[in-house]
Amino acid sequence: MKVALFVTCLVDQLCPNVGMATVEVLERSGCEVTFDERQTCCGQPAFNTGYRNEAKKFAKRFIKIFENSDMDAIVSPSGSCTAMVKHFHELFPDEAKWRERAENIAAKTHELSGFLVNVLGVDDVGAVSDCKMTWHDACHGLRDLGIHDEPRRLLKNVKGIEFVEMENADVCCGFGGTFSVKYPEISAGILDNKIEMIEKSGADTVVACDASCLMQIAGRLSRIGSRVQTKHIAEILASRE
Amino acid sequence: MSMTHATPETFDRNARRALADPILHRALRNLADNFVVRRRNVILSVDDWQGLRERARSIKEETLLRLDKYLEQFTENAAKAGTTIHWARDGKEACEIIVALVRATNAKMVVKAKSMTGEEILLNEALEEAGIEPVETDLGEWIIQLAGETPSHIVVPAIHKTKQQIAELFVEKVGIDKTENVDVLTQTARKILRERFAEAEVGISGVNFGVAETGTILILENEGNIRMTTSLTKTHIAIMGIEKVIPQLADLDVFLKLLPRSGTGQRLTAYQSLITGLKKDAEDIGPDEFHVVMLDNGRSRMLAHRVTRQSLACIRCGACLNACPVYQQVGGHAYGSVYPGPIGAVITPQLIGLSKAKQLPYASSLCGACREVCPVKIDIPELLLHLRAEITEGSAGGTTVKARLKPKFAESLAFKMYGLAWSKPAWYEFGAKVSRLMQRLVARDGKIGNVGGLISRLVPPLGAWTAWRDAPVVAPKSFREMWRDKENDAR
Q1: Dist CA B462 CA A217 (whole Å)
Q2: For chain B, which end, N or C, has fewer CB atoms within 10 Å of the first or last residue's CB respectively?
Q3: Do A57 and B330 count as a contact with CB atoms less than 8 A apart?
Q4: Which of A46, A172, A182 lies nearest to residue B415, judging by beta carbons?
Q5: pTM of the full structure
Q6: Could you report the predicted ipTM of this complex, rounded to two decimals?
Q7: A148 at the B interface (CB within 8 A)?
């Protein structure tokens, strides 16, 4: 299967290893991966802050870049950015042609764990890891895309891993894009509840499908000097002995 | 802590104040622990919860699309049964109507059943100004009235208060001996309120549902005070938002399953009062006069757009408040509006005008927990985004604001720049390179700690972020550079 990687700007610039791990997992699962270097951002920060005109430019650009490739699917290591692509059509209430193009692109776009399990039918990628991990359900992956069991299945099949559920795994980490800097105190309050649950689970690693939540969680863990590590699901799935 | 002077415009300050209040925090934790868990368990007793939500939404959608027809039906049938109907364009008009009705009875005091619509139109203030004493009879609402505060929750108005605080309030205001025995406290309230009921001639209530087919109103409660307010008095005045109408009595089957489960995690409330006009037999218990005041107050404006129309489907269960991580942190008073939480963040700006509540649509991480629990499937994140777009660009196509508001200059400039620069991969890469150079000034051990003072003023988002969390640095090599290397190696 030919897969166009939508790496997301956050992964591209802040945690490129997650991008490389995503490529590794996809290739190991039999996909031919391509990466179009014209891609930058999906425009979610603009859309979520209310700058629809700006978001529309990003959406059009994204659609033009990805619809011309001959891929079978677009895969991203982010539930949130994938969800944004699925929102594109809302930006074109009066432009039927663009709305249709947006819907076509949305139908082909998948978050990594959902793609592996639901499209490729893979729930064991042959990874090995010795961490004791817990899963954080990133909101947009969970509630916009319905991703819940998929990452759990993949992670539980990682050889040597110990999977523990934390309480309130499905509660927000408080990131929320610009919310995290518009209302940093509230964001941090929500985050501290999440950190409390992570610590309480006894895990040494917290795993999620979104670099943004991980950036928020890691930032606080690092600030309070916690021994808990953050890992993107792609990094765990790409790990070998 | 009283936050009655908080307004939506000071949400950021109100929130900071709330976060610094450990007692409030403890009270709010109770809320999350109790209501969220109870709701989650009790919805399992319904076979097809999701199907039920779908039905509720489609009933509401149908009603709202033909609201004129159903309102006409409701008011005609109610009038036939002996109800006197009044129409109020806004809160002021509604208050004037109600004050005039009470004055006509010569009553100097009214007993009140808990009503958010009553709060919305500031009815108590209007009554007091007219020399009429309003007595709240819902326990939580009575506590709030004693304390001189406003409700902090749609369903549980005194949720921000702990048992200890309530005990202290009772000692101070009703002069009982110090106790933290909940039974003693409730018995005290009960005794005082019974006496007020006995002397009351006028009762004022809200309405949960108005049935068009029969002209019936339905009110739900647990304490029996609403039953008394509406039956022991000689005059009953009900205030009803125009969106509360539903087509048929049979539709209640759907809403009665959804509302108590979503709100308080109950299968059914202890009392359901169905009132159709006046009593048929003069010997029966019940008021001699029954008035329903139909309130618009900005509601018909919301009908105009597909997205904002959803706001009117709300049945005021409060589930979105309980589920909201932001509400759980700051409580209801921080919103500075009658309706707090996620639904308040979308309704308030539409009721009082976006220009007076610009912060509220941003008071959300867009996590979607509210949408997930909403019994009528209101897409609150969609509404929040709609209102945000109205604030920044007037670009959502709504009719809730007349003129485009001026967004913060720095913010809109930043988004313009981002829109321009990030549409060119070369500029985007150049930006990353510049960041890599700049971050050397502040990064230590591969991360950025609290940047503090000067930098925080120069780059406010970085200051806001690092005040609480370490920030990651731009990687020495981006993914696209790694990808190029990989491609070259393959060749």
Answers
A1: 16
A2: C
A3: no
A4: A46
A5: 0.95
A6: 0.96
A7: no
